[in-house]
Fold these 3 entries.
Entry 1:
Amino acid sequence: MTKRVLVISHGHPSFSLGGAEVASYSLFQGLSELPGWESHYLARIAPPVQAHRGSNLMWLRQKEREVLWHANAYDHFKCSSRDLSGIERDFIRYVRDLQPDVVHFHHFLGMGVETIFALKRAFPRLPVVVTFHEYLSICNHHGQMVKTGRFALCYKSGPAECAGCFPDIGEARLFERELYLKSFLGMADLYVSPSHFLIDRYVDWGLPRDKFHMIENGLTVEGIAPPRPLKEGGKRNRFAFFGQLTEFKGAHVLVEAVGRVPKEVWGEDGALAIFGGNLERQPEPYQKRFHAAVEKAGERVRFYGAYRSPELPGLMKDVDWVVMPSIWWENSPVVIQEAFLHGRPLLASNIGGMAEKVRDRVDGLHFRAGSVEDLVDRMVEAIGTPGLWDTLRNGITQPIDRLECARQHAVLYDRLLARHGGVSVGAGALPVERAVAGPV
C-alpha cells in the first residue's frame, strides 16, 4: 500500500529561494521517486502575492501535488499565527481531504506553531515530524544566536540571558515565549536536524534528545562541474561566495580579506565571485562598510547577482574554492553540500555547523570566525601551497542525493507509523481558535 507524506515549507523555492526551502522541496521530490511512497508539498506564500477569495489555499501553476497556503497574519515574537480560524478553515480541511500518513514540517515560520496543535487535535494518531533549520525557537534575534548590537556569539539561551539582548521585552515575556513554543513543539512526534550541533543546542534548551534524529539534507543533482583547467604554472586562485549579503553571512569579512592578500600571491588572474543579493535590504551602516571593502578590493571582486540551484554547475566551473565566512553558528548550509558535490574544497568559519561539516585540512580549511587576518592567512595558504587543493579535493565525501535522503526519512516514518498504528480523523476535536486563545 502506498504511504502518503505531506511536506510543509515556509516558502516555495519558486518564490523564496533559501536553504530550508530547497531542502524541503528536495525531500518532496525524493519521496515522490521512492517506491511505495507518495509525497505532497504545501508551501506558505505571502504578499506581494494576493490571496484568493474565500480560501487561503491557492495554486499558481506549480507542478502536480504542490499547493500554496497564503498566510500573512503572523506574530514573529511567538512564531504564532493570528489567523487561528484560517488554520481550522483551510489548513485542517486540506489535511482532512488529503489524508496523509505523515505530516513533516520543514518550518512553521509564517504559519505559526499552532498548526502542530491543530493537527494533533484533529488527527490524534497522525505522526508529525519537525525539521529544525536554525535556532529561531531558541533565539528571538532572528534565530541567529548572536548578541544584539555587538555581534558576539551567544552560547546560552534563557529568559535572563535573552533579556540582556531585549531589555524592552523583559524576562517575564521571554519566559512566556519559551513556554509557549515548547508547549507546541512538544506535541511533535519526532525532530530531524541536518547537524549534530543544532541537536545539542535544542537539547540544551530543553527538548528531549530521544526525539531527535540527524539526517543530512539531500541534494538535487543537476550536473557536476569538472575542475577548472589550469594553464602551465597557473594558481588555484579563484574563490566564490554563495549566499545572501547579510552581516550574519560575513561576506564583508571575505571582501576585506581579499583586499589584503598580497599582490604577488593573488596573481593577475585571481578573483572573488559573489553570487547573492539583498544587500539593499541590510542596515545602511553595513551597506557602507561592505561597499568600502569592495572599493578597496577593486577588480578582485566580481558581482554576479542571485542564482538558482540548477545554475550551479555552470557557476562552479570557474571556481576553485568556496568560502563560507558566516559569523553566526549556521546549521548545515546547503552551500557546503553543493561545494562538495562539485568537488570544491571550502574555507569555512570554525564554529557551529560549518566546523562540523567542513573537516579542517581534510576537505577544507578553517579560519577564526569574523577574523579578516586569519582568513587572509588561509587564502594565502590555499593559493600558495602546491598540491593542497588536490589533497583537500580528494578528501571530500560526496553528499547524499535527494533519493537517499528520502530513504532515510522513510525509515523514520515507518517507525512512527508502526508506533501509531494509523491515522484518526478526529472529527469531534476542539477548534484550534478555542484551544489556544488564552495565554500559556
Entry 2:
Amino acid sequence: MNVAIIGGGAAGMMAAITAANNGHKVNLFEKNEKLGKKIYITGKGRCNVTNSSDIDVLFKNIVTNEKFMYSAFYTLTNDTFISMLNEWGLETKNERGNRVFPASDKSVDVIKCLEKQLKNTGVNVHLNTEIKDIVVEDNVAKGIVFVDGTKEFFDKIIVATGGFSYKTTGSTGDGYKFAKKYGHKVTDILPALVPLNIKEEFYKELQGLSLKNVEVTFFRGNKEIYKDFGEMLFTHFGVSGPLILSGSSYVSKFLANHEEIRLILDLKPALSKETLDDRIVRDFSTMLNKDFRNSLNELLPKKLIPVIIERTGISPYKKVNEITKNERMLLVNTIKEFEMTAISTRDFNEAIITQGGINVKEINPGTMESKLINNLYFIGEVLDVDALTGGYNLQVAWSTGYLCAINL
C-alpha cells in the first residue's frame, strides 16, 4: 500500500517506521529542513522520550480525553517503546518521576536513532516539502496537494502536523486547517504547559527566585482545580516551573475566557501551622533584639523576606521581642497561604504543547482513522489530547503513530 505521512515529528516518524516495517511503501513529507525539530528542544535539549511508570499512571497524567488513548497506550505501551529504542541502539536511563531520557542526555541521539530506522525500513523522506491540501473525493482521501499545486496520489494519508506550540519548529496548525475543510470539528486551541502572568507586582522583586518543595493550589473562585507539590520559579512576568506548567493545563480554558485564577502557595507544606509557629518561636528566641526584617533568614529565601513582611503588615523595623502572638500567626498564615492571581497564560511561543485540537469523537480510537473521511488518519498533537510534563505527551505521539500504522 502507498502511504503518505504529513509531518516528520515524533508521531509521524513512528508511523512511518512502523508502516514501512509492515511492508507498505511510505513517503514522509516534512516542511522543515530537518526531522523532529520539536524533539530537539524537548526536555531542555535532553528529550524526555517517555515515562516508565505503570500504565494507570500514564492515564492519570492525561489532562484531556484519557479514555480515547486506551487502545493506543495498550497497543504500544511505554515499556514496549523503551525496549524498541534499546533494540534500535539507543540506550536510555530513568530519572526522578520515572522520566526516561537517552543515556547520552542528547535529544539529537533520539533523532539519529529514528532517522536510522527510517533509512533501514526504506521510508522516502522529503524535507523542505510543504503540503497545501489533501485530495478528497466522495469522502475518501486520495492524495496530497503541494504548494505549487501539483498532486500526488496515495492509498492512505496520515496527518501528523502537530499543534501550535513552539511555532519556530513549524507548528502552524496545518492539520487543523485540513480537518476543518473536510468537516471535522476542532476544539478551541490553547497554549498548555505554559507559564502564567500574574496580577500582583511583587513578581518583579522575586524575579529569578526558584522554590523547591512547595505546594501550589489553583482555585477558580472557591473551587479547587489543581494541587501539586514540587518546584516553581518567579519570572519577569509572573510564575513558571514544573508546578505552574502542570497547573496551567487545568486552568488555561478559564484564563482564555478572562477569568482570574487564585494560586495559593504553601511555602512550608511539610509543617502544620502549629509546627511552623513553634519553629518561628524557637528562631525568635535567639534574636529577641533584632529587627523583624532580620529575623527570617533561617526560614525563607532572602529575596522573599521583604515581600512576606509587607504581606503581614508588620513593620520591618519592629523588634522581634515586641511581636505579638497575633502578629506571629499573621506571619504563619502568610507563609502557608501566600496568594497570587493568575490573569493569563503566556503565548504559544512559550507553550510546551497545545491544548485542544481535532475532536476525538470523530476519530476511531482503535485505528486513528477519521470517521468522516475514509483513508484519512490523524495522530499526535493535532488531536484533542494533551498530558502533563514527564514524557507523557511524547508517549501519546509514539502510541498513536504506532497504532495508526499497524491498522492501515
Entry 3:
Amino acid sequence: MSLIDQPKATRAEDALDVNAVAAFVKSHYQNAHGALDIKQFPGGASNLTYQLNFDNVSLILRTSPKGTKAKGAHDMAREFRIMERLKPSYEYVPEMIALCSDESVIGREFYVMEKISGIIPRANLPKALTLSETEVNMLCRNVIDTLIELHKVDIQSTGLHELGKGIGYCQRQVDGWSERYKKAKTWNVPPCNYVIDYLKANVPKQEKTCFIHNDFRFDNVVLDEHNPTKVIGVLDWEMATIGDPMMDLGNSLAYWVQADDDFVAKQTRRQPTHLKGMITRKEVIQYYCDQMGFDAKDFTFYEVYGLFRLAVIMQQIYFRYHHKQTTNKAFKNFWLLVNYMNWRCKRLIA
C-alpha cells in the first residue's frame, strides 16, 4: 500500500486544455517526453493543484480557480517568484520549472514545478504507517526545526526583502483581520470586541522580522517515504511574506490540537498532533524560543492572534455558505466553531 497521496481524475469544472499544457511544459522542460495525462489533487480550498504525468516524469501545476484574477489572493507569479528565490537558501522548496503569465494558454496564470514525492501528514497518518512514540517525538521536533530553519534564512541574500512593508507588521495584521471579521460577521457569531480590543491594546512594541510561511502546518510538509520522521519538502507558499516569526508560530499553534484538548477542539483537528510523542503547545513555544533565542514567557498575544485569525478564516468561509455562494455542507456549522474560537481566545486572555 502506498503511503503517498495519489491524485484523482480531474473534476469537470476544473479541466485543463491537455494539448496547451503539454506544449507549454515541453517548451520549457526538455526532459518531458510522450503524451500527457492530467490528474488533480482533491484538497486545497484556494489554489488548484494538478499532477502532470508524462511517459517519463511527473510534475506539478498550480493555478487559481476559474473566474478568479491572478492578482490578490491568487497571485501565481508572486508564489512562483517566492519559491524560486527561496530555493537556494531553503532546501525544502520544490524546484521551479516555469511560470506562464500568458492567460490565453489555459485562461489564467499558472506555474509548473518539480514533484516532491513523499508522505503528507494529514489529520491521521496513513494506516500503513506505524511510528513509535520516540519516532513521533522526533517527527514533531523535525517539523518545528524546519520552521526555525526558515525563520533563520538571510532574507537580504534572497532578494525577498522587497516583500517587506517596513515596521508595523503586527499592527497591520491585527487591524486587517479585525476588519475582515467585521465585514464577514453574520447574526449567529459574536462581535469579538473583547478579543479585538485585547489584540489592539497588546501589539508588541518590539517586533522581529524574518521570512515567514504564514500557513505552516503538518499538512503543508512532505515526509520521506523511507524515513517518515524526516522532512523533505514544504508546500503552499501562497501567503508567505516578510513578517514577525512569533506571529508565524502563533498561526501554526492555532491548528495544534493536542491529546488533552476538549471535544470541540478535537473536531477541528487536521494534523496528527494528538499522537503519543507529540509535544504540547506550551512545549512547542519553549522549544522554539530556546532555539531562536527569544523570551517565551509572554506568548499570549501571539497565541490569541493565531486563534482569532483562524476564527476569521472560518467566518469568511461560513459567510459564503450563509449567503449561498457555496453549497458545501462541510461549512454549515463553521459559525459554531467561530463562537468556540472566541471563547478560547477569551480564556487565554483571562
